[in-house]
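Hi, here's the filled form for the chain we discussed.

Project: internal
Contact: R.S.
Residues: 353
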Amino acid sequence: MNETQPQKLSDTQPRKVTKPSRWGFWISLLVLMAALGLGSAAGYGEGVYERVNAQSTKVGLQLSEQFALVQQDIDAGRYNVARQRLEYIIKQDATYPGAADKLAEVLVNQLITPSPVPTATATITPTPDMRSQEAIFAQAGQQLQNNDWAGLMGSLDSLRKADPTYKAAVVDGMYYTALRNRGVDQIMGTGAYKTTNMEGGIYDLTLAERFGPLDGYADGLRTFTRMYITASSFWDVDWPQAVNYFRQVYQYTPNLRDASNITAAQRLTEALLKYGDQLAANGKSKDRCAALDAWSEANTISPLDGTYSTKFNNLNLECNPPTEVPTTAIEAPTVDPNAPTAEPTATTATSGG
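And the returned structure, exactly as it came back:
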């Protein structure tokens, strides 16, 4: 039959049918599954990235909004609300720019904000200072030479109000000097301040940092003043903590004192004595004996008075009782009566004849 003729459907002759390879099927299936897996993974990763990015953006906007509201709260005197906002921001992002410094400012403001004082019905509006900027600046220079920090601050405020741009860099430097030195004077009770004002001094030094970094002395003084205040908060509440903080203050600034004119050295001494009393009242002998260490340390700062000397000696006898030294009698040597005795050697003198 001609090969070109169409094959009849009714043709009953057997025909060879080529079977597809099993390996090809499985390879195709694996390729398809791999393609689907990669596509799913890529889609999932992109989805996660978009969600994380969106969440991060949302949180960032929330924190920015809260931080912007902080200054409004401060201006309105709502320091507690401002503190809560800042604590929330720092909890969400501990490195949020400016949050830690702003929180320190709020805490200081809470410490030094005076109670509201009723104002008189009639108020007198001060006469505006209409002098020229040169005259105000000249007066500020004289106050700087005289170490009149409060007066200098007043002149600089008037100058800034009259013309914020007048010798701005020089005025900033004068602000720094006035705030830094007034802060130190308030903490130490020197200059125009007869008594110490720790909180006011900390506030001035914090404001001075807006114009430039504090020197080592001022920065260290502020640190130990804060530590003094912290130590005082544990007074009569937690003697071990009071001792811990006052010990650090005493090590570097033993003469630092508060408004009651009590130095850090005196505070540490009394805290050690009270802590020793607390330990000595313990029922366990082992814990009672620890009071000797506290009283001994207090004695190195200031000698113990009669009362504490007696307490120390009595407890010391209890914790370190004297050791009895046994006395041993010296026995005479025993002599055997039957033992031969040595004959004395006689020396015979021979006389010459």
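Let me know if anything looks off before we file it.
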